Amino acid sequence: MTPSGGESAATGVEDLLRTEEITMNFGPVVALRNVNLHVRRGEVLGLVGDNGAGKSTLVKILTGLYKPDGGRIYLEGEEVRFRSVQHARQHGIETVFQDLALIDDLSVYHNLFLNREHTRGGWFRFLKNRTMRAAASRFLDEIGVDIPSVDAQVAKLSGGQRQAIAVARAVRQQHIKILLLDEPLAAMGAKETSLIIRLIKSLSRKANIAIIVIDHNYTHLFEICDRINVIQHGQVTLDKSLHEIKLEELVEFMVQSFRRQIATGDAK
Ligand SMILES: Nc1ncnc2c1ncn2[C@@H]1O[C@H](COP(=O)(O)OP(=O)(O)O)[C@@H](O)[C@H]1O
Ligand SMILES: [Mg+2]
Predict the structure, then answer these.
(1) 136 belongs to a structural domain
(2) Does ligand 1 come within 6 angstroms of the Cβ of 51?
């Protein structure tokens, strides 16, 4: 296999997605420098790091929103250059952005079928609605999302339930390979958080996809992830599977690097 193939040197298991030396600048700001990241099928990779470390920029590059200034992205061993979010979606990359892009006035099941619903009138439309409704209900059951009714207006749901619907919509895409979640647990209460954590875990077990999730909370990441990458100042500074690192060790790593930043006058 060539160096650009999907083989991971560490384990020999094929990477679904891999980046090589990704860089990104915003004017004088270096947001990412030489980021090498990889994720396998069935794996949940957590990205953690301070505000401004470059996590969202990385996700936006992987989702086709930004073109990197340098570096390469490989999907199943083939180099890809995403022209747009749509283009990345065609390659099976789905992202749940923070604004979620749900339509508040519509029902849960209409949101699940957004952009794909059939819009014929009369009796036929009624039948289509019934089919969509049943399919939506079945699908949410399957992935373990518990909401009062698929007829409920999305506006009436809690933050956690809305997040769950947005995630469900992303994973309904036929050719999904990679799901990107940028801070899916931000601003959620304990009950909501556990709903989303359960959903992510069940998806990673059921669907043969890779999930990349950004979160601030190390405890949450230890519940959800198989592997964690720490991003600091636009670089991956730690890449450990959860077999290799304990929560206390990760916290200690962050504290130590914060101390170094203070010592070098680099702390914000
Ligand atoms: N669209 C943008 N224009 C200019 N600077 C940006 C833009 N997006 C991000 N940045 C800068 O790039 C760096 C990384 O930001 P970001 O990826 O949002 O970090 P994180 O998600 O880890 O908090 C920060 O210094 C931020 O200010
Ligand atoms: Mg961010």
Answers:
(1) no
(2) yes
